[in-house]
Amino acid sequence: MADTVKKVVIVGGGFAGVNIVKHLWKDKRFRVTMVDQDNYHFFPPLLYQVATAFIEPSNISYPFRRMFTEKNNVRFHYGMLLKVDPEKNTIETTTGSLDYDYLVLAIGTETNYFGMENVKQHSLAMKSVDDAINLRNHLLLNMENAVISNNDAEREKLLTIVIAGGGPSGVEIAGMLAEMGQTIVAKEYPEIKRGNSRIHLVDASPHLLGSMSKKAQDAAYKVLSELGVQIKLNKTVKDYKDGNVIMADGEIIATNCLIWTSGVVARQVPGILPEQIGRGRRILVDEFNKVKDSKNIYAIGDICLQTTDKNYPNGHPQLAQVAIQQGHLLGENFRKMESGEKLKPFSYNNKGSMAIISKYEAVADLPKVSFTGFFAWLVWLFVHIIPLVGFRNKVKLAFSWFWSFITNNPTLRLIIRPKKQADCN
């Protein structure tokens, strides 16, 4: 009987990976191993609130081992994927090898710097909890250094922030930073005079929130402009060197902080063949999320490119809802395979998109209606609490939001960073 148990290895513990585990952890026909380079699941849509010291990292994170407690057929393997060997049905990780009957690749995307090495080396990304904490430290250190600087040009450079990318992440962090400048910085850093806005939001397209409705785009532009954000549309970053952001049109902005939210590319998976890779380095899959020309390898979430959905012939958007729904369905289909039942092809149910702009201001594009303002903000809060893993996380986040919003003063502005080895000598 033990020989009939199927070994399912899932690489990546994001929305896609966690949702397939949830559908298999009560089915004793499977032995599931989750592989991830972090020992926790986290909620990417709220990373910017960690980066701006609005909420704690623990509000949006949950340890895998705690999640899998008493799930006897699920194990966690801590390590980074190095290579897939389809012939041997094994994967190599930084901490050992694993064999599988079914392999699920759900490792998502990484920041796309479009070949700009200086931007890659010196800008600040926002793809992980580590990135968010690093950005928080950087922003706080810049303000502390600006306070003690006697050089006006250097002080201005430390206080200027350029955000590349006018999608939801760029809009949300721009709004949060602008509000911080009006409420917190003015009170806690009396040495810093606000003066002209020092936040620049840059995007190559003619609109913010390019994938959303015109109503949402106009609302985002209006609210951010009123907060003092300098919005630069139809402009692209060409380089970032010597503390200067260089635009393609020649404009130069001196800054010690370039936040990069301007695009993503699928993570590379050594062992997957070039002919199995499509646009944006995404892995080509069929209607059941099985990798092209493979027998037992699947890809779900942002890393896959599926063109069989009639409503999305060019592939699905790289959104959390797609990953959640694909993980959910693949878990169901694995169980159907073992039962000899007919598999169900994936079809994305678009539930809409949302973005928060500032306190009490958000935009929402739902399937049949678009709305903005306070009600959209309330809906945004509700929608972003529900998917969090763990009751305690939901309560902590709700309390953190409540306290921060009514006081305009979250108390998480701590500069915490590991000491360098040199400091210990």
Can you give a write-up of this model?
By secondary structure, the protein is of the alpha/beta class. Among the domains are: 145 residues, 3-Layer(bba) Sandwich (FAD/NAD(P)-binding domain), CATH 3.50.50.60; 146 residues, FAD/NAD(P)-binding domain (3-Layer(bba) Sandwich), CATH 3.50.50.100. The chain is 32% helix and 24% strand. The chain has eleven helices and 24 strands. The protein starts with 5 loop residues before the first strand and ends in an 18-residue tail after the last helix.
Structure summarized in a few sentences:
The protein is of the alpha/beta class and 425 residues long. The protein has helices at residues 15-24, 47-51, 64-67, 117-122, 129-148, 152-159, 168-188, 214-226, 320-339, 374-385, 391-407, and strands at residues 6-11, 30-36, 40-42, 61-63, 74-78, 81-85, 90-93, 96-99, 102-105, 109-111, 161-164, 199-203, 230-233, 237-241, 244-247, 252-254, 258-260, 264-266, 283-285, 297-299, 304-306, 353-358, 361-366, 369-373.
CATH fold node name of the domain at 117-262:
FAD/NAD(P)-binding domain
Q: Pairing-aware structural class of the strands and helices?
A: alpha/beta
CATH architect. name of the domain at 117-262? 3-Layer(bba) Sandwich
Supply the number of helical segments: 11
Distance between the termini: 58 Å
| Oligomeric state | single chain
Strand order within the widest sheet?
Answer: 5-2-1-9-20
Write down the overall mean pLDDT: 91
Tell me about the largest β-sheet: 5 strands, parallel
What are the low-pLDDT stretches, counting only 5+ consecutive residues below 50? 421-425
Radius of gyration: 23 Å
Question: Roughly what fraction of the amino acids lie in strands?
Answer: 15-25%
The CATH class designation of the domain at 117-262 is Alpha Beta
Give the overall silhouette. globular
**Helix content range of the residues, please?**
25-40%
List how many beta strands DSSP finds: 24
